[in-house]
Amino acid sequence: IRAELAPGKRLVVIGAGVIGMEVAASCREEGLEVTVLELLDVPLLRAFGRDVGALYGQFHRERGVDVRCGVGIAALRGTARVEEVVTTTGEVIPCDFVVAGIGVVPATAWLEGSGVALDRGVLVNERCETNVPGIYAAGDVARFFHARHGRHVMVEAVENAQLMAATAVSNMLGKDETHAPVAWFWSDQYDLKLQSVGAVDDYDRVVYRGSIDTKQFAAFLLKGDRVTGVIGVNRLKEIAAAKKLISASIPVVDAMLADAEIPMSKILAGPSPA
């Protein structure tokens, strides 16, 4: 990719996930003309949920990226290299090169018939052990049972792989440890430093703290009176507090979260008795 970074070159990015949007941001800052094609209806949907994903689509468009959602790929055409992308809507997009960031599928075919339970990855319990005693799995290939969420989850992030491997090894050595992290993730795009904690796919409303217009805000994802996840953009001080809110399952009041004048330490203390 570095060899292609010349101002004025035309890039098509296939996939508006984290990889695709980070590549789009980096190349746009180098002066390239960037088009992003995404099959889903908003960018970054899996990583950060619909609301923040839509905001990031807006941020990229403001910087000149042509973000097109709901668009699939019919063909890549060219001679010695790709020269144009044909979409499922029939559009032909000329380009100098293409970057595909379309995600991965866990490679579990070699385990079929082994007796190890599979479902979009290797299923493990909260101790990182499969249904076959003594067989463990960790990392991006493993979907682990998360007691806080009451379901199996897959967290494709470096920190999770490291922590999960440590838990698996501890239990192999006879200890009894559980893997129940508050997931943490980050992404740097343009001057936007984003960090997220918790789950971004299990909420019924979003409460914003800070200013979307100035690109400094924390989006609190809530279900009932509990925070399930937080996404901070250039508002990193909320992230540490958010981890505590989620791990301790502290009840919150929407109005307090939205009021940036109320310190997070007060919110961590829980709502005052009526």
Description:
Helix content is 24%, strand content 30%. The chain is of the alpha/beta class. The strands form four sheets. Strands 11-12-15-14-13 form a five-stranded antiparallel beta sheet, with helices on both faces. A hairpin with a 2-residue loop joins strand 11 and strand 12. The mean pLDDT is 91.
List keywords for this structure.
alpha/beta, 6 helices, 15 strands, 24% helix, 30% strand
- Which blocks of ≥5 consecutive residues have pLDDT under 50? none
On the 0-100 scale, what is the average pLDDT? 91
Instruction: Please report the number of helical segments.
Output: 6
Measured as a percent range, the helix fraction is 10-25%
Q: Bin the strand percentage.
A: 25-35%
Series of secondary-structure elements, N-terminal to C-terminal: EHEHEEEEEEEEHEEEEEHHH
Number of strands: 15
Structural class of the secondary elements? alpha/beta
Q: Main beta sheet: strand number and arrangement? A: 5 strands, antiparallel
- Indicate the radius of gyration in whole angstroms: 21 Å
- Measured between the Cα atoms of the first and last residue, the distance is 59 Å
- The global form is flat
Physical arrangement of strands within the biggest beta sheet:
11-12-15-14-13
